[in-house]
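--- STAGE predict ---
source: upstream dedup step, 1 unique chain passed
mode: sequence only
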Amino acid sequence: MTNAELDAHPLCQVARVLTWGAVALFAYGVLAWGAAQPWFALAALEVKTPVAHVTETQIRLIAERQVAGTFFTVDLERVRASLEKLPWVREARVARRWPDTLEVSLVEHVPLARWNDDALVSEAGEVFVAAVADRLPRLAGPEDAVTDVVDAYRRHQTALAPLGMRIDELRLSPRRAWRIRLDNGMQLALGRVETDARLAHFVAVYPRLFGAPAAAGPEAAPVPPVAVDLRYPDGFALRMPDGRVPAAFAPTREKPRPT
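--- STAGE serialize ---
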C-alpha cells in the first residue's frame, strides 16, 4: 500500500484528527495554566473618567469582591455588571491594560429632580434610587408616566422663565390632571387638557396684573397669588393672601381738585 493510500485510509484520517486534537488540548492547557499563574496577577483598578457621586470606597469594595483571577482570566462582564449596580452608575466599561491593570470608565446619572417619594429621575429621564443632599424640584405621577412628567416639566419651566419663576413641584394625578407649585409658593391648577395653552395665557397676563417680577426691586416686588385655577375656558381664578385684591383691580381715589 502506497503512502498516498495510507493517508487516505479512514483510520489514518481519524488518527490524524485525534493527534491534532490532543495537541490543541495540550496547548490550551499550557496556556490556561500560564494565564492563571501569579505572574499575571492584577495590581490596580483605575477609574479613567471623573466621577461626582461614586466614591473610592465603593469602587474598592467592587474590586475586592468581584475582581478574581489574573490579567487573562478576570471576568470583565462580571466586574462591569457589579459596577452598574452602584446607585449612581448609569453605564460602566471595563478593559485590561497590560501588564496588571483594569481600566474602568463610568457614566453617572445626572439628577434632574426627585421622583415621587423615594427616587430620583435623571436628565435622561431614567428613574434611579440614590441619596442626594442637593435641593431639587419634585416630580410626581404614576410610575408609567415618568417620560410625560419630565417632558412637561421642561416645557412648563421654559414657559415660566420670562416671569423669573421656577417649578418646585409638578404633579400628575392618577386622573391625569396637572398641578404646579412654584418656588414662591404659588399653586397652579392646569387640569387635564390644553395645559400648555393655559400656562402660556397665564404667563402673558401675569405682568399686567402684578407687574414684572424680574423688573421689580425687593421692596416693590408684587405680592403673588396663593393659588391660580387655570381650568376655566375664558380666564382663571385667583386666590390672594389674606383676601387682598390684586393691585390691577384695586380702586383708585381721585385727587381732590384745587378750589
